[in-house]
TrEMBL record:
Keywords: Cell cycle, Cell division, Centromere, Chromosome, Kinetochore, Mitosis, Nucleus. This is PMF1 factor. One of its GO terms (cellular component) is MIS12/MIND type complex. GO terms for biological process: cell division; chromosome segregation. Transmembrane segments: none annotated.
Length: 137
């Protein structure tokens, strides 16, 4: 095979001394490399929950078979693609922020009224104190 010839070329001196041992080393190296790659792939599958993702992807494909309309595909114009996805999200977010702003403004209005009422009460109490002080003198 081509890969064995490359291996032999790299270890030509060793191959000239013991060709059978070189072949054995090459076979061992390839089998260990394949096992290692399979193990890595399995590890990636396990870590990324790829089995579950593939199952959900298969389910989506099955559900899409009966659809009349085509699935969303990128248009090739990044601005248009991002706009079609981001605009609904941003509009929803803006609506949420406006609602929160209205709530905060109402809360601030109530606090301001409370502060004004407190100031008025303090002014009334100061006048009462002055009136009683003058009456006492």
């Amino acid at each position: 095979s081509c890969s064995y010839q490359k291996f032999v070329n790299c270890y030509r001196c060793f191959y000239k001394l013991q060709p059978q041992l070189t072949r054995s080393i090459y076979d061992q190296f390839i089998s260990q490399l394949q096992a290692s790659i399979k193990e890595e792939i399995q590890e990636v599958k396990n870590e990324g929950n790829l089995e579950g993702l593939f199952s959900s992807l298969d389910k989506i494909v099955e559900e899409a078979k009966d659809r009349e309309e085509p699935a969303w595909r990128p248009s090739g114009i990044p601005e248009q693609d991002i706009r079609s996805t981001m605009v609904p999200y941003l509009l929803k977010h803006r609506s949420h922020l406006r609602r929160v702003l209205r709530e905060k403004e109402e809360e601030n209005r109530k606090v301001a009224e409370s502060v004004l009422m407190g100031r008025e009460r303090i002014a009334e109490l100061q006048q009462l104190i002055q009136a009683r002080q003058q009456a006492w003198q």
